[in-house]
Amino acid sequence: MISLRNVSTTFRGKDGDFTAVNDVSLDIPAGSIQGIIGFSGAGKSTLLRNINLLERPTHGQVVLDGVDLTGLDDERLRRERHQIGMIFQHFNLLNNRTALQNVELSLKFAGIEKAERRRRAQEALEIVDLAEKSKSYPAQLSGGQKQRVAIARALVTHPKVLLCDEPTSAVDPRTTASVLQYIADINQSLGITTVVVTHELNVVKAIADNVAVMEDGAVVERFDVADLASGAFEPGTEIGRYLLDEEIHLDRTPLAGRRDPASGAPLRGRDGKELIHA
What we know:
Blueprint: E1 2-13, E2 16-28, E3 33-37, H1 44-51, E4 59-64, E5 67-68, H2 74-81, E6 84-87, H3 99-109, H4 114-127, H5 143-155, E7 161-165, H6 173-190, E8 193-198, H7 201-207, E9 210-215, E10 218-224, H8 225-228, H9 238-244
Parallel strand pairs: 3-8, 3-9, 6-7, 7-8
Antiparallel strand pairs: 1-2, 1-4, 4-5, 9-10
Helix pairs in contact: 3-4, 3-5, 4-5, 5-6
């Protein structure tokens, strides 16, 4: 369904070039939920935006349902993007429009006539159980409700693919499960291929079928979430093992007794002097 072939994305800056995505190849089967996990700055969100070409790759191909998006002209690309819904981290709702108006906005841009876009927007809000909030403005909604409006907005174009960029990071932990449940139910009932970018292990464990681990712009490891339940699975990379370790580890030994974990050298203070025992 989605095939990324040797995708790289390099940004030019005053201090030189920066490669955010480095030669990534990834195949995502139709109807599956693909998790992409990694630390901040690993390239996760850039890779997600490469899929719908909101961030055009510097090199490589993005193939969606047999169509090479990177080879399309602007008009054809706009049409193909109607097959791709996107949920953003911070909702991106317009404060001066109601929930219904926010949902129908993309249909308005697509030239859908008013009665039809109103019907489809109301239908999308019903899918996320927010039909009664159709006339409410974002300021009148909770964080979870705002994200559900954003989900409805992504669904209103009847997409084949749903891209989710940190969909739970702006909501509280109690709301996280609710948002993920809606995404999982939509994937199951509508068969929409879903890609979820997150830095939270509990999110991918709850919703994903497969996980791609990113570090320094590259996919360094992939595994099925079902393998985690076996109890015998061990990630093959250090970053994978770290991300799958749910414990928080703090070094509570005195600063003067510690060494830099990378070099083994004694820690130094801000003045550059070596920390010594009192």
